[in-house]
Write a structure and sequence with these properties.
It is built from nine helices and two strands. With 262 residues, the chain is mainly α. It has one domain. A two-stranded antiparallel ribbon has the order 1-2.
Length: 262
Amino acid sequence: MTLTPAEINAWLALYLLPLARIGGLLMVAPFTAGAYVPVRVRLMLALAITAAIVPALPADVLGAAPAALPALLLALAQQLLLGVAMGFVLQLVFNALVVAGQAIAMTMGLGFATTIDPANGVAVPVLSQFLLIFGLLLFLALDAHLALIGLLGESFRLLPLDGALGAAQWRALVDWAGLLFVGAVRIALPMLLALLVVNLAFGITSRAAPTLNLFAIGFPVSLLLGIVILLIGLPSVAETFAVLVRQGLGFAGALPGAQVDG
């Protein structure tokens, strides 16, 4: 059996398009986008997932790869953007933990303690980093990473390689960005209310005993009670985050479809 150069190029292009979609997702997905994951590991993971998914797809889904170089580059860019969009959905879910951690840390007096987030390379409160690690472990415990790989395979059926996201999908993705704030409020609200009661108690104490130095007493007490409230509220955080993950996976799976609820 002899393969012509045109057939070899078409075969390579047929694998390059799915690789672009899968690689785009892994480039921004929360568990692989961090600087702690080497680029070589991400590339090998993308190649492995591509080699597992592409042979299982029907021929009508794959279609014919563009023969001309400009058309092939345009198709690669479209598939890369689709993968980035799907990964961005889950990135917003995890960023809700960062915003919630910042709100809680500022309320309990721990906002000054910051560290570098290895995933984004920016300084975030230690509490936000703790919630990020907690969310990542919960994400893996829920087998959400396996569900994401399944959604990748299904995305090729919803939007074949010769298709691209339309205006409705991009508009729905922008609307989905509101989850960053809604999810953060849902995660942090129970603990913020508890810390508000603590601060109100300190305010009443300062009025009842004006000579009492609340700066020396209130800060360590508020910090200690904040940690206790956080430990008590972790099950609620896990439950809310699990709901957000399920919503994020559902939206990422529906995003390649022709109809997306915005």
